[in-house]
Write a structure and sequence with these properties.
Strand content: 5-15%
Order of helices and strands: HEE
Mean pLDDT: 74
Structural class: alpha+beta
Distance between the termini: 19 Å
Shape: extended
Low-confidence stretches: none
Number of strands: 2
């Protein structure tokens, strides 16, 4: 289950740093979802930030 938090904490940042790749999903209205893998260089997190609930 997903867990919502107001910002990233040290355990989140360490977990993200340990990952080898990520999948980033995007789509437009009435279009199929595109979920390409991304390398670790494209998924750097500079530090804690507020959670974006869109």
């Amino acid at each position: 289950m997903a867990m919502q938090t107001p910002m990233l904490v040290d355990t989140h940042l360490r977990s993200i740093e340990e990952q080898h790749s990520f999948f980033v999903g995007s789509t437009a209205q009435d279009k199929p979802v595109n979920i390409p893998p991304k390398g670790t260089n494209s998924s750097r997190v500079p530090g804690p930030m507020p959670n974006c609930d869109g």
